[in-house]
Amino acid sequence: MELIDRYLALVGFGETGWGALLLSASAMTLGVSVCGFLTGTLLGSVVTFMKLSRYIVLRWLADGYTTVLRGVPDLLVIYLFYFGGSAFLGSLGGLFGYEGFIGMPAFLTGTLALGVVSAAYQSEVFRGAFKSVAGGELEAASAVGMRPWPKFRRIVAPLVLRYAIPGLGNTWQLVLKESALISITGLVELLRQSQIAAGSTRRPFEFYLTAIVLYLVITWASSIAFRHLEARTMRGTRSSL
Fold this sequence. Notes:
The protein is an all-alpha fold. The protein has one domain: MetI-like fold. It contains nine helices and no strands. The chain has helices at residues 2-11, 19-51, 56-71, 74-94, 106-132, 135-143, 148-178, 190-201, 204-233. Helix 2 packs across helix 5 (106-132). The chain is flat and about 70 Å long. This is Octopine ABC transporter, permease protein. GO terms for molecular function: transmembrane transporter activity. It is a multi-pass membrane protein. One of its GO terms (cellular component) is ATP-binding cassette (ABC) transporter complex.
């Protein structure tokens, strides 16, 4: 019991507890993950249109994008965005007479890096979902004279989303785990806060164990949300036995 009391005092919300900081860092992890995932969704949609284009150059560019981003370590992508963005901001500041170092904002770096990487995976999810849409449904929409945008909004997008949700759930889990890498830019997310607390108290086991639990809680809640969303999109369809 004494060991448990000491642990609760360490990660609790008392005067010497780190609970509030850990929860704040968890919110930061969730925030950068959501922003990165949504950025990847937008970019991944564009890449998907390129993959499905009738122009071979666009298909080559999209295939090259997904091949490179899925083959390069995510940490390198974060470094490129951070140092490349900082160099760009430094050059921009030099135009106005500023000669110091201008660091790329850590949250923006994480959002862009996670978005660019996840877009490579999400584009494959969307492409596979589009291929699963029955051609007869698209032909029926064209047969009644439906224009391209209404057909996309009413027919294509809902059906693609229905088939894509399971894959998007897996991609979200990857983004959530990769968000821990953003700590190298100084963003105080869950892993970084755990490192700070462990270094300050010299009790690494307790804080890293707590970080594991918090990551699992976020993952568990996310899984429930995606299952609920999948059930809603499948409403009205007949399940095959």
